[in-house]
Amino acid sequence: MKQKKTVRNQARKDSPGGKTAIKSEKKTEGNSFFSWLLVLAFLGAWLSVGVMWFDLVDYNSVVGTLGGVYDADGDGDFDVEDAKVLLENATVAAKEKTLRKNITTEGDHIQAGPSKPTCLTEKPVMVASPENPLGEKDSLPGENREFTTEESRTANQISPESPPATQPVPTSVSTPESITETTEFTEEPSVESKEEKEAKKKKPKLLNKFDKTIKSEINAAEKLRKKGKIEESLRAFEALVQKFPQSPRCRYGKAQAEDDLAEKKRSNEMLLKAVNSYREVAELPDVPPDLVKATLKRCADRQQFLGRTKGSLATLEKLVQIFPEDISLKNDLGVAHLLLGDNKGAKRIYEEVLARAPHDGFAKVHYGFILKSENMIAESIPYLREGLETGEPGTDDGRFYFHLGDALQRTGDKSAYDWYEAGHRRGHFASVWQRSLYNVPGLRARPWWTAEETGYTALVKMLERNWLTIRDEALSVLDSNSGQFLPEDENLRETGDWGQFTLWQQGRKVAASCRYVPKTCGLLERYTEATSCKRGQIKFSVMQAGTHVWPHTGPTNCRLRMHLGLVIPSKGCRIRCTNQTREWEEGKVLIFDDSFEHEVWQEAESFRLIFIVDVWHPELTQLQRQTLSPI
């Protein structure tokens, strides 16, 4: 027997198929293991089906619980889109953590050493007056706006011109402690993290019970919109609205798609459709409160964009009625009143806000702004200052730095320049001196110019050659007491009388005025650098003895201002621009950039008469001159 086994084993070893047999045995073992895995998988699948079929688990309660915690996209429950948002948030959070660490380190460095000037950006700011409380001449009530791109409305960069060493400002201007760069770096991260936490706690719920049942169809249309396939998305939402007319979320999606398409096509007509769709959403039954708020806020914003300020005001009033505890909505309502020129209404709103939330920074800066427009200069200062110091959203605006500094100047407080410096460091002003905010970047910035530097020598020579003709026509109007010279109405005078007689305004000829001075208007007709200047005027200016004009700046860096002396007393009349003071001469032209701070004294014994001609900044292209909005 042993011999047979030995022979058999030997034969197996010697046989060429021996190794194959061994491999076959191992393969059988592997197949058996794989079969067991398949069996277990099938068992798991059938178990899942059984659980679902026989309702062994209450999935609604589970998903509801998850939705409350993980509803990242705000549609009312947890799905694939939520997972994407959560994954994206995790990535962003990791980046923010690294960035916050770097910022803290940089903040420590800044605190230890001297601060460095930051890159300059510009925002619109103008002098407020009772007639123009916001100082925004290009956002008038009822004015239709179009989808146009304008350089001056964006946050532009300007080459700054630092104040000369002999300026009447301390050589080392200190920024108020509450708004130093160190504070900016150390406080911002904590504010952001707080907002993030609040956002996580209060994710908007945009789906009602019915919309949850058709969520997959809504998501399909929404994905098209998010991918930029706006026309397809709009068709999808229109089909859903036709199929489910009572669905708030479907109609909201349609409104958003129309909104996006209006932006893409730059169409006011399409934007009006979006506004109507937003309004329809809020009027449907069973609309979730978060969706009502989101819809009406966007509706008000789009109405305001279109210049339908009264409609925007009505929408915001409706919002405040529905959500009376939301302070931010009342603040927005106050702005709507201001845009309508209703200072009293805005003032009442902000008084109500401050009674409930006395430390609300947004309400404070706007309330201070209103007080200053009412010439309550001293009273406006604490509200503007304290509001800026909060650093709350909506307070970091050049207009508030501008008007706080101006109010401080008028009360003789030298800390005005600290705030101008703070505004400059925050990127609102090109420099402490140059504080205009309707700007085009890159234009040469200097306070005083010569005729040769402007390139407008022909215009200057014409004015100086014909100054007697121009003077005589102006005097005839002045002597006639016809009422053509109107008082200055921008609240720029500390004392005295200052009248103006306008021939061209915002690039348009005032024909009624030119009838009184036909020769002067005829002389100017061919000088388009002046007559087409939409950001300036051509006018006579008469200033009586005893007049002082506060330090102020013009609204834009897009123009230069020419002064032709017509009747100039021998002593007592002078103009300061930055730290350089000059005097007028009869028959001679002075040229300066009025976006820089300037101030006027008339201390003579008789009146002073000059002719003011604004011209385009010589470095503006023809296209820019044609497309810039009027001021």
Automatic annotation (TrEMBL):
<dbReference type="InterPro" id="IPR039038">
    <property type="entry name" value="ASPH"/>
</dbReference>
<keyword id="KW-0812">Transmembrane</keyword>
<dbReference type="Pfam" id="PF05118">
    <property type="entry name" value="Asp_Arg_Hydrox"/>
</dbReference>
<feature type="region of interest" description="Disordered">
    <location>
        <begin position="128"/>
        <end position="203"/>
    </location>
</feature>
<keyword id="KW-1133">Transmembrane helix</keyword>
<feature type="compositionally biased region" description="Low complexity">
    <location>
        <begin position="168"/>
        <end position="183"/>
    </location>
</feature>
<feature type="compositionally biased region" description="Basic and acidic residues">
    <location>
        <begin position="134"/>
        <end position="153"/>
    </location>
</feature>
<feature type="compositionally biased region" description="Basic and acidic residues">
    <location>
        <begin position="11"/>
        <end position="24"/>
    </location>
</feature>
<dbReference type="InterPro" id="IPR019734">
    <property type="entry name" value="TPR_rpt"/>
</dbReference>
<dbReference type="InterPro" id="IPR007803">
    <property type="entry name" value="Asp/Arg/Pro-Hydrxlase"/>
</dbReference>
<keyword id="KW-0597">Phosphoprotein</keyword>
<feature type="region of interest" description="Disordered">
    <location>
        <begin position="1"/>
        <end position="24"/>
    </location>
</feature>
<dbReference type="Pfam" id="PF05279">
    <property type="entry name" value="Asp-B-Hydro_N"/>
</dbReference>
<protein>
    <submittedName>
        <fullName>Aspartyl/asparaginyl beta-hydroxylase isoform X1</fullName>
    </submittedName>
</protein>
<dbReference type="GO" id="GO:0062101">
    <property type="term" value="F:peptidyl-aspartic acid 3-dioxygenase activity"/>
</dbReference>
<keyword id="KW-0472">Membrane</keyword>
<keyword id="KW-0325">Glycoprotein</keyword>
<dbReference type="GO" id="GO:0016020">
    <property type="term" value="C:membrane"/>
</dbReference>
<keyword id="KW-1015">Disulfide bond</keyword>
<feature type="transmembrane region" description="Helical">
    <location>
        <begin position="33"/>
        <end position="54"/>
    </location>
</feature>
<dbReference type="GO" id="GO:0005783">
    <property type="term" value="C:endoplasmic reticulum"/>
</dbReference>
<dbReference type="InterPro" id="IPR007943">
    <property type="entry name" value="Asp-B-hydro/Triadin_dom"/>
</dbReference>
<feature type="domain" description="Aspartyl/asparaginy/proline hydroxylase">
    <location>
        <begin position="464"/>
        <end position="618"/>
    </location>
</feature>
<feature type="domain" description="Aspartyl beta-hydroxylase/Triadin">
    <location>
        <begin position="29"/>
        <end position="88"/>
    </location>
</feature>
